[in-house]
Amino acid sequence: MAQLREHGTEIWKYLDGKHLEALEVSLATKTAALSYTGVVENWRIRHRIKISHVGLVLCLSEGPQLYEDDKPHPCATLECWIDPFKLVSQRPSEAVSAALQGQYERWQPKAQYHFVTEPTLDDVHKLCLQLRSEAKDERILFHYNGHGVPRPTITGEIYLFSENFTHYVQLSLFELQSWLGTPSAFVFDCSNAGLIVSSFLEFAERRDKLNSTSNTNLDQAEDKKLGNDKDGWKKELKSFSESIIFASCGAEETLPTNPYFPADILTSCLTTPIQMAFRWLLPRSLVSGVRLEMLDRIPGKLNDKKTMLGELNWVFTAVTDCIAWNSLPRALFHRLFRQDLLVASLFRNFLLAERILKSLNCTPITHPRLPSMSHHPLWHAWDYMMELCLSQLPSLLSTDEKTGPGKDYLEDNGPCKNEEITRDIILGERMNTSASYISIPFFEHQLSAFETYLMIESEKPTVPEQLPIVLQVLLSQNHRKRALNLIARFLESGDWAVDLVLSVGVFPYILKLLQSSSLELRKELVFIWGKIICQDRSCVADLVREKGHIYMLDFLDTDEEEAYESQVMALFMLSVVSGFAPKKLIESRALDTVISKTVFSKDARVRRWSFLFFSKFIKNCPPIAQELFENDDFIRTTLTVLRSDESPANRASVLYFFEFLPPGMPFQLELYEDFLLIRDLGVDLGNIALGFIISIIEEKSDDASPLVRREVVKLTARTIKSLHDGDPNIVGYCMEKNLVEDPLGTFLLQVLLYLSGDPQIEVSSFASEVYKDLTETFFRNERQTIKEGETKPSSGNCNSSCSSFTPDIKNASLPRVVSLEGIAQQMEAFKIRSTTDDDDVDYNVIDNESQNGDKQSQHIGNAWRLPSLYDWSQGEIMNLRISESIKGDRSPQSIFESLYNSNKQMVYLPEILDEGYLLSDNSVYIHQHHVESLQEHLTLDLGGSPITCLKFSPMCSQLIVGTRNGEWSEWNPESGTQQLSASCGNREICAMRVIGEAGGRITSYTRYALLTACSDSTIMLWRVDRYNQDIRMAFSCRCWSQFDDMEENIDYSKAYISKKFAISWEPYHARIATNRRNPGVIRFWDLPQEMCFARCRVPLDSCINSLTWTGSIANMGPQCLFGGTDNGSLFTVDMRTKNSIDSIPIEQSIHNDAIIRVLGQSSSTGGHLLSASKDGVVCVWDPRKLSTELEAATTLQLGQVGFLAAHTCLPLFACRTTENNVDIFNTQGELLKSLEISGCAEEKSRVNWITFDIEQPYIGIGQENSIVSIYSSNKAQK
Q1: DSSP conformation class of 879
Q2: DSSP β-ladder status, 1058-1066 and 1030-1038
Q3: Which residue has the higher pLDDT, 1275 or 23?
Q4: pLDDT tens across 1210-1228, in order?
């Protein structure tokens, strides 16, 4: 028979849910720290040093050469693509200077250009002084062409012409530095240019040292004037060593003389990179039909991306940016490629110059020195794109050739007839383009590569090399939507991804896109902006300046039902803007838009962030609270969310919103009595918001969610703060200085006292600290310790319970702990003591006594240091993922969920789905001969505390033991060693349930969830990581409170009160059914929602002793609940009813005494329902034949039954028939084995619990005397 393995799917979704982190100090602090922590590097360039003036110094020889030159013949002669020897009427130096100026103006048209031809020493001196006088503190570019003068000297002098051009004179670089000053940039295009660089840097270092020692006081005065030097820009402004230098070759190298290339090859690469790239590639390309003269007539314009030249320039910018981004340190990349347009263009083009010159045995030099990037793989992609263009070039130029554009000026048969060099040829631009140009697929390929990177999940974050290319794609309207989508998906990776996106320079682009009216870009753009604002708040000023808040409001006004993540981002950004410019939001009527989104939104996250937005808006602009509460739909939506929202974080966000609500604001409480249960506290609060707040505190202090209860503590403390310190005319209530003499103050103190006994340690420690701080402040002279039970006081006994206090509050003020928003962050540590039904429990002691509880102590300490709900939620923004509707794909999990949601009545299909109850692959099946051979295998002594519960883990066969003093521990049944342990705080454990992790076979053995139920109606859910030895209480709540009794109008004077806590766990949907104290009332709890979602009355005059779901019964599904009462009655509750949940009594005359347990059991024939009563009657029922008269398949009369246990999957059950005897039967009623527990007879103890292992032939028996006996079969087949 196939054996079933029990799993919970919903429970692991819940345990892996992010909102649980909000109560775990380390994780919550880490999550909150994701937002605005300065993780993003200093990407914003606050001080730009731009090139404003350019000086061109061209030393070209037009007359007889005055020095010996070893140039071959023929050699390179082109200067700025002009052959000086083919010009007749125009002076070559003037033509080249004009051409060079035109080429520079293409990269920076706003700069001022000055040039001198055939310069003398005096000419250069005047030029330098003029440039510095006009540029002031801006950067100057000094371009030196020394092709007509001797090479630089070893000591670093460059040559100029004499006054009468009879000889050459030397210009020292030291003098040049003095004339130009700083900041400056230099281009030296001549042979042996490396000598210039080394001498220049030597002089610069000498000058910097001299300036640093002589001008200290002057620099300090100037520093005060210029401000902070955080970005290091002052150093660049003053230091000669920070100058930018481009040199054409090394110190011992000469420029290439190949006539195929121009003589000023560095200048040509720096100013006309596309022409140089084509000329270099042509002899290396396999494309045929392209002649050299065609390269000078490339069609298009640089600024038109729809033409060949424009698109190639666009691609070249993307390629060189990407190469530099992946090769340089971030700071250097920002300085060289993001600070100034002309400097960035020169360095991009220099990467091409390095590639070309190195192929010609020259090594160009820059300062700052760059690593070699000539062999980067992206150059191959660039070559491929150029070849695609080369293949189109002949056809594009064929029309021009037919019309006779004229002979090429490079032909060798004499001077060109047209001596005026046209501007488009000099600049490499042709206006007459053909419409048949086919765009190259470079950006499509790179976007696909980036998308592939995003699809591959890596444990270690890696920098995507395509990021600068994606940035360039934003310039294209055709690919913009896809690029934004990929950037949004990349930002899901975390804060480091935001860091990279900002560093690469995406911010100016997305800032400009806020002016776009395109509706299809809004989802992605809002999502990206949300990630950036979460990480860097300095961007809020830019957002508001560009009216980005109106953009967000317009997006919220649109009906984007699927873009919930982007709506969350928009609300988050509006909450940030409310603190920066609240008046802007008031002017744009933001309140109406967000109220509408709150009332009508179907998404839980949108509702939560709506209330968080209101919280911040009211905090920064309190008068809008009145406008909010004049909207009846908003109030009713708020109360509905608070009481019945499925998200615990949403209910907590409403309480967070109430913290900032002015208590004295007018409010008609009686209009909403249908939403609230209002007690009479003897104070008239019906016309102000304070009464509304008090009612909320009263009700939500018993909420099942620990996160909500923590917010109740904060709301209570803030209310006391407002009433005590506020003006009575403003807050609407005059509180007595002595809190215990004020009925309202006393009530609020009692709420804190009640919550100090909360089962969730983070809540109880927080409430205890707040209460302790209040009592120490108000009652410091005569403080007494109040000892109260867990029963929450009503208004009638508040004064009497606090009558022992005699406070002295002459100079008292409310403690620091409730002064600011982050109450939990302001507290100091103290030893936690929680008030419970039993003795006080010191959890620190429990941790120290636990053998393996070191990890748990990390979670229960310092609960007051938890960040506020808003801080945690905004940190959670960094974990927000873009919606699947934007991605355009669906995961297998979402497909399964939609399949299940479409058919709520589906049964388990274990042979198809690895969910719910799974088939075991290698189980050890327990047959009858295994039971007959059971022998005592191991005995464990737990040291005195009676055993109250046992459970084998279904995943790894570990035995989990629960005791009367509230401790539970995990034991290895083979070796008898303890693995883990934790404490429920002196609460007797009466039931346990283990849920293994859904998924892989390996991880399922290392992680599981444990549900413990305590006799005081407290349930706790533990997340256990066996691999890391980590235990975390994920959830806890009281399943009964006096508030519930008041709501259900139960008269305990006439009702029999049960002391037994009946509970049953349904793991597939993570639902719990409980009953305690209230006769005949069953509460149904949804664990992911952390709330009681339904109640059911059982019309029987008795109390419920046992409950069980039918989930463990094969083919029935987890939809029905069976139960037994203390008068022998059975009943069932069908959860599939649409209108109401009602119980159905099962008529039977077999059980005449109190039913001990009701259990479900699966089998190959469909499953059984077992019941046992105190009079010794055990029945096996077929639940599929449920009718008014349920027929018993098997009935046993055992005389006496003290306990019933059943195997989950096999037709076996065991009963305690005497104090020390356990009998094992099959479902046909045959006795298979009778075990006499020797320890019970010797110590006059009894058996308290029996449990079967689901996979291994183990049976665990727990005794009153703290002894656990493990029986196993020696015939197990493995």
Answers
A1: G
A2: unpaired
A3: 23
A4: 888 999 988 888 999 988 8
- Return the pLDDT at 39: 46
Confidence at 943, pLDDT banded by 50, 70, 90: confident
Name the burial class of residue 541, with classes exposed (0-12), middle (13-18) and buried (19+) by CB atoms within 10 angstroms of its CB. exposed
CA 283 to chain centre: 52
Q: If we measure between CA atoms, which residue out of 647, 567, 648 comes closest to residue 883?
A: 567
Of the candidates 530, 592, 561, 1160, the residue with the CA atom closest to the CA atom of residue 880: 530
How many Å apart are CA 174 and CA 994, to the nearest integer? 82
Band of the pLDDT at 41, cuts 50, 70, 90? low
- Lowest mean pLDDT: which of 136-150, 763-777, 1112-1126, 1195-1209? 1112-1126
Q: Which residues of 965-1004 are buried (b: 16+ CB within 10 A; e: fewer)?
A: bbbbbbbebeeeebbbbbbbbbbbbbbbbbbbbbeeeeeb
Which of 15, 20, 1 minimizes the C-alpha distance to 996? Answer: 15
Per-chain mean pLDDT for the chain? 78
Per DSSP, the residues of 422-482 read: -HHHHTT-BS---TTPPPP-HHHHHHHHHHHHHHS--SS----TTHHHHHHHTT-TTTHHH
Angle, alpha carbons 559-563-568 (nearest 5°): 100
Residue pair 15/1034 in contact by the 8 Å Cβ criterion: yes
Q: For residue 1209, give the 3-state DSSP assignment.
A: coil
Residues in the chain: 1278
The token pair at 717 is 């403390």
The amino acid sitting at 4 is L
Q: Which amino acid is at 1159?
A: L
What's the rounded Cα separation, in Å, for the pair 1047 and 1040?
12
The predicted structure's pLDDT at residue 832: 26
What is the distance between the terminal CA atoms of the chain, rounded to a whole angstrom?
A: 16
- Nearest of 220, 146, 230, 235 to residue 182 by alpha carbon: 235
Question: Of residues 52 and 209, which shows the higher confidence score?
Answer: 52
Residue 445 makes CB contacts below 8 A (sequence gap 6+) with 381
**Mean pLDDT, rounded, for 1061-1066:** 85
Query: What is the identity of the amino acid at 270?
Result: L
The vertex-1021 CA angle with 1018 and 1025, nearest 5°, equals: 150
Using the 8-state DSSP alphabet, how is residue 500 labeled? Answer: H
The helix or strand, by DSSP H or E, that contains position 1105, with its residue range, turns out to be strand 1104-1109
DSSP state of 1189: B
Least confident stretch, 353-367, 665-679, 1188-1202 = 665-679
At 1242 the pLDDT is 60
Instruction: Report the sign of the C-alpha dihedral through residues 1026, 1027, 1030, 1036, in that order.
Output: negative
Cα(802)–Cα(602) distance, integer angstroms: 46
What backbone torsions phi and psi does residue 1129 show, to the nearest 5 degrees?
-90, 150
> For residues 537 and 557, is the Cβ–Cβ distance under 8 A?
no
pLDDT in tens, 645-658: 989 999 999 999 99
pLDDT at 1141: 76
- Of all residues in the chain, the percent with pLDDT exceeding 90 is 35
Map 694-724 to HEC letters.
Answer: HHHHHHHCCCCCHHHHHHHHHHHHHHHHHHH
Question: SS3 for 935-990, per residue?
Answer: EEEEEEECCCCCEEEEEECCCCCCEEEEECCCEEEEECCCCCCEEEEEECCCCCEE
State how far the Cα of 283 lies from the Cα of 722, in Å rounded to an integer: 83
Enumerate residues 6+ apart whose C-beta is below 8 A from 266.
Answer: 187, 189, 246, 247, 248, 353, 357, 364
Tokens 């290319």 belong to residue: 469
Nearest Cα to Cα of residue 831 among 859, 860, 852, 868: 860
Nearest CA among 1159, 1094, 1162 for reference residue 1123:
1159
By percentage, how much of the chain surpasses pLDDT 70?
Answer: 74
